[in-house]
Design brief:
- By secondary structure, this protein is an alpha/beta fold.
- It has a single domain, classed as Roll (CBS-domain), CATH 3.10.580.10.
- The chain is built from six helices and ten strands.
- The strands form two sheets. Strands 1, 2, 3, 8, 9 and 10 form a six-stranded mixed β-sheet that branches. The chain has a four-stranded mixed β-sheet with strand order 4-5-6-7.
- A hairpin with a 5-residue loop joins strand 5 and strand 6.
- The radius of gyration is 16 Å and the shape is globular.
Length: 165
Amino acid sequence: MPYTRLPACNLDEATGLLHPACILPERVELDNTALGVMTDFLRLTAFIATPGDTIKQAEERMTRRKVHLLFVMDVHDRVAGLVTSTGLHGEKPLQGVQSRGIRRDEVLVADTMTPVEQLEAVDYDDIVNARVGHVLETLKARGRQHALVIEQSEGRQMVCGHRPG
């Protein structure tokens, strides 16, 4: 079966995050349903950071929670961005150290996160009938490691889940 990319859109600045264990199948196949392998934030709490957290705090939270991704939430409970374990060990922290003359443990999540306006998401309605192969093709085409899933709730976009690649 040929897999095609799912339509994606940019997140807007008012995007929120739905709040409530996601149990994944033992072996994931391309033909498994995308919903079956999605982390559903109605069943599992999303882990978060704030822009003012240090990257050391974010790393510790990821390690403690056994996750590789934190949603960065602003003071209005809106998604400000996303920080991943890969990003915390990439170039951005080093740039902060070099450009601002600070220690690595003083670098903030705000300095390393992918801001909300650069995040893309797939609509929940497009995931309902999709297969894992569709999601992987979407990730590959966009050069992403995670597919965020959104739905409309209370008149605004809400992240309701994600699927790691």
